């Protein structure tokens, strides 16, 4: 049979044939779309990275990585999680004694929110994953939130994924120190560890898992996230090696590696003594001022390139750029030379604003949507207060001008506030339409018209029957009333269409 492109009707027919099969219909309608292989079901999955190595050689040792991540942490210290009543369009902050507000200020007895969020940010940027354990009251309300170390949490694909009423496809397992020992245990030993409390199974409802995208996740979005350190691992390793080389050079070197040569043959027994004596006298940076003396026929030759010949400046610039790129932090903000060489401090404010818009706000949204999913209650919700950020408040004048232009165009004040997201409370006359006095309806030829918006015209330019003006002494008043009514009706329709587009198209 010749190959041909399937039409929509062909695809619909194929689906009907599949669902008509005694087994096919059951599969398509009841089974979850994700089916894990047998070797994964019920088995804790190996982590993608060695977390301790990334945390030690990346965050703890490398200055670029530490500076980039800590810039995010310090910046997000300014971003409070607030509890509100009402709705997102007209939020009303809840008092501090409200349980939801208290949880936002102190997620657990050991941490304030800024400490809690700072640790979560470090976990996410080092491992690509952040796990938050939820403890609940008897009625199911979240009472505490605890960040868990990523290398102690394992994702476990559940065995039974065919029940239509249960969409829990994964679970979690928290283990104590010694994860390598855990992975080496048999299933019986693991069950015994769980029974003793050495490992704690956690259901999906009691865990927040914030992760960065991983395009090769075998669990199709439900597995481990990809660490930003993974694509930057090579330049970060090179940067660490350069730093180690410099330390070794200043600790042990006089000059770059060289060769002592003599015209006369040397006794093999004398060579180690000469080498040791040379290093003893001239080795180490503290002996650089010593003057080297060679006997007749002796010559020193350098056999390794100098710093300039190796291009250390270019190497440093390359490592700085590639090392911080995955974190989305402009180099100028962390004091990297590659950023300072190409910018001035006059660009600092622009770089900071861009970092908030391009990196910090999107990354914080990963946490905000999860907090809202588990913490929102009836008539109460949580959200970040982005207007507490000085860099974001700089946009207020521009938003105010956009708001004023909308109001001058006949958009009610409260609705204009919603459109431009200007952080002001509802206005008393916020639903009133203000229009310039100069606006009058005209016909197709530009002449003043007595016809108002929404009135259908006949071919001769006259209004349809029932829409003619009524003559009388109150004609002007009735005309104004009709004009206001028709404009209000038209605005109501335009507003409804605009809100629908906001909801469906995200404009």
Number of beta strands: 11
Q: Please state the CA-atom Rg, rounded to the nearest Å.
A: 35 Å
How far apart are the termini?
47 Å
- Please give the order of strands in the largest beta sheet: 2-1-11
Overall shape: it is: extended
Low-pLDDT segments: 18-30, 451-461, 467-473
Helix content: 40-55%
How are helices and strands ordered from N to C? Answer: HHHHEEHHEEEEHHEEHEHEHHHHEHHHH
Q: Proportion of β residues?
A: 5-15%
Number of helices: 18
Average pLDDT number: 75
Tell me the structural class. alpha+beta
User: Which sheet architecture does the biggest sheet show?
Assistant: 3 strands, antiparallel
Report on this model:
The structure is a single chain. By secondary structure, the protein is an alpha+beta fold. The chain has 18 helices and eleven strands. The protein has helices at residues 8-20, 24-30, 51-60, 63-76, 99-105, 113-127, 179-183, 187-196, 233-252, 270-282, 307-310, 312-324, 337-341, 348-375, 390-393, 396-408, 413-420, 475-505, and strands at 81-86, 91-93, 129-136, 142-148, 153-157, 170-175, 199-202, 207-211, 258-262, 298-302, 380-384. It has a three-stranded antiparallel β-sheet with strand order 2-1-11. A three-stranded antiparallel β-sheet has the order 4-3-8. Strands 5-6-7 form a three-stranded antiparallel β-sheet. A hairpin with a 5-residue loop joins strand 3 and strand 4. Helix 9 packs antiparallel against helix 12 and helix 16 packs antiparallel against helix 17 (413-420). The protein is extended, with a radius of gyration of 35 Å. It starts with 7 loop residues before the first helix and ends with a helix. Residues 18-30, 451-461 and 467-473 have low confidence and may be disordered.
